[in-house]
Write a structure and sequence with these properties.
single chain, about 240 residues, mainly alpha, 2 domains, 13 helices, globular
Amino acid sequence: MFRESALTQDLSMPLPLFLAGVPLPEAGDTLPSMPILAATRLQLELLLQERSVDLKNMAEIILADAGATLQVLRLIGEEYAGEEERPTRIEDCIVSLTRERWHEVVCASSTSHSAPLLAEWQHCRRIAECARELARCMDGFQPEEAYLVGLLFRLGKFPRLLGWRPIGDLPRINALDAHHGEDHAVSLMLAEYWHLPAYLLSALREQAPAALPCTDSALGWAGILQNAQELAERAQASCSGAML
């Protein structure tokens, strides 16, 4: 599904931008729909033409695409902003959206396509899969939530990889930003503005400074994410070595 050949580029699209010094809601309003992979868009279009939709199949298609997953969660955040009973599982999100809102997902741009972005989304998916497996062995964590956290906790990198202009003088959201840099600050800003699930915000806030080890599972999301990243990097290295 993550094949660069399936993606095309539309150079006529203007680059959206983050505006330095403007209030958070106004800065967030400058952002367009998150692009999805062309293969994802095609599969969703075909599914939505059926009289009855296979919910599990649709969820798997969306979860395999970081852009599609984020777009669905953004729409849910708009629909249920501030509500405690908002859906968080992708399956629940799917059945909560109207046909018109699904049209926004399917018609989202599928033209973002740089090799670095594609590589990042592939890497995020590997991290997500590892995080899900780790959560299955730990108390207090849901595998479905761990997958989404692994998939999206690096979302602060997406604007830069999409070619959007730098954020500039971004206001810091909490003390951890000084350790994680601008990408982490952007992740927190977007997660808060888009009303992403509370467990994702918790995971972002729990991340320990990169200079400190956090392999102990007692460190919660920080431990899961660091271990998941290490496992994903080992898996990628093994695949690369096997191809040589």
